[in-house]
Amino acid sequence: MSQICFKNVTPYNLEETLFCGQCFRWQKTPLGYCGVVGSRRVTLTQQQSDIVVLGADESDTDFWCDYLAIQEDYTGIQNRFSKSKQLGQCVTYAGGIRVLHQPFLETLLTFIISQNNNIPRITAIADRLCTYFGTDMGGWYAFPTLEQLQEKTVEDFAVLRAGFRAKYLVDAVEKLAKEQISEEELRALSLDDARNMLCTIKGVGPKVADCVMLFGLGKTQSFPRDVWMNRAMKQLFPKGLPACTKGYEGIAQQYIFYFARANLKNT
DNA sequence: ACCCAGGGTAACT
DNA sequence: AGTTACCATGGG
Description:
- Helices cover 46% and strands 11% of the residues.
- By secondary structure, it is α+β, with helices and mostly antiparallel strands.
- Helix 4 packs across helix 13, helix 5 crosses helix 6 and helix 5 (104-114) runs antiparallel to helix 11 (206-216).
- It starts with a strand and ends with a helix.
- The structure holds a DNA duplex.
């Protein structure tokens, strides 16, 4: 075990990136942000413009580079976004956020859990999903694989205390296990076709599907709409998203969401 | 006791 | 196509 250092990554605000609501598996500690992705457990820190992955295996450099969206050209994206005055305001406020590239299964299951739920409880349920069904790595647990979740029933998932969402998890696992839905196929499909396919899972509607596509399938055009976003769009962009967001609507969404949650009245 | 939480579904107009 | 009760659970 050693550490990986990504040098001179800018713009990047690690704390905002990890706690803007796109992921639920990181915890702030005095040493840094501690978390598990798949079966990799690390602590992340930021020192000026360097992003450091503590406790990582060097052979996982490419994995963390991808997960943390290190190589995406955010400077270029933000320059285009700033052609819109309103969006430029959001960039100024939230421009340190990057959209992570999370593993598909984790993204799908945690966002099914997220519906009509709050972040502390989403985190707690996801933690229990790992401790009860993931591999014991000695003091911590990996996120369960599809194989580990196969054949599980609503009764098995009762320990999660996920409420009515348990049956949705079962259906998602079943559709993936039977290959009625595959990550590979979803990645190849257009935004609308992939959304339609994801929405065949019970408990997955447009909001969850769009989150899964943005955070777990690398589809940067996906634009999740929840109550906050609808409020923000009415106030900031009553005529719709500006054209300068084309292809990167989802990244604009993160900036707008973060800005709106902090600055707009919740009416 | 009551409210809400980055929704979705079924059952209505 | 648009609106509404209900869904389990936990925290305020």
